Amino acid sequence: xxxxxxxxxxxxxxxxxxxxxxxxxxxxxxxxxxxxxxxxxxxxxxxxxxxxxxxxxxxxxxxxxxxxxxxxxxxxxxxxxxxxxxxxxxxxxxxxxxxxxxxxxxxxxxxxxxxxxxxxxxxxxxxxxxxxxxxxxxxxxxxxxxxxxxxxxxxxxxxxxxxxxxxxxxxxxxxxxxxxxxxxxxxxxxxxxxxxxxxxxxxxxxxxxxxxxxxxxxxxxxxxxxxxxxxxxxxxxxxxxxxxxxxxxxxxxxxxxxxxxxxxxxxxxxxxxxxxxxxxxxxxxxxxxxxxxxxxxxxxxxxxxxxxxx
Length: 310
Description:
Elements: H1 2-13, E1 16-25, E2 30-33, E3 39-46, E4 48-53, E5 60-63, E6 67-70, E7 76-79, E8 87-88, E9 100-103, E10 109-117, H2 124-127, E11 133-136, H3 143-159, H4 164-186, H5 194-199, H6 204-212, H7 220-226, H8 231-242, H9 246-264, H10 269-275, H11 281-292, H12 296-307
Parallel strand pairs: 1-9, 2-8
Antiparallel strand pairs: 1-10, 2-7, 3-6, 3-10, 4-5, 4-7, 6-11
């Protein structure tokens, strides 16, 4: 399944979704949210409103059942009317407390929001390929699945069930995945990169092979055969989609895995080299330094230093 490769990317980026709260509102209202250093998602359960993103001239209409994901670090406003003067979110929501608050006494609108936290070191692998705004409309093919997830999320918050916090986080993670699936299916020509390669069904078999066994010494003939293409046609199509040749993609993926292992594990560099298909520690160290810019041991020391409490 293509989603196996997709899961690999999400795991490497350590994408963790969190529900931060929501609000009900009626009449004339507007609320400004600050720029986030995380991916921000917002779902309108009922009602209608406008989305205004700082630096973007055109307001975006949002309807009941719509879900938006913002990857750009800009403040934004949700408003019932473009003429409404916004209040600051900080004056409405309590930090670290996930709850639904009321604005103005009405309940015509119900919004649930949250964010997706990415690994500071490897999260860019995901964040850098996303557009500033993904807008999944209620009429999209993914609306049914999203609607069910959103209804469950609202129920968890309203019923205050045991384990509601964990259940909400799991539901938020599924919502995030559905948003990305919708984006992949609805997008036109994506920029060259792993996301475009993932959406190309012709080269998907080669991606699955490389992700399934990154330590293997893959040959272009093997990968081309798996895609039922000639070697030349396969290489050209892969490079057009991914932006790099197949074996360069494999090298880069190995280095991503090596970075994670060096940050999170105590595995010896020699053992890490063998696990990634290198016959010697020196061969791996040379490849790592050439790709990342520093030797593996120095990278590990720097990672530990940056994560240690001051």
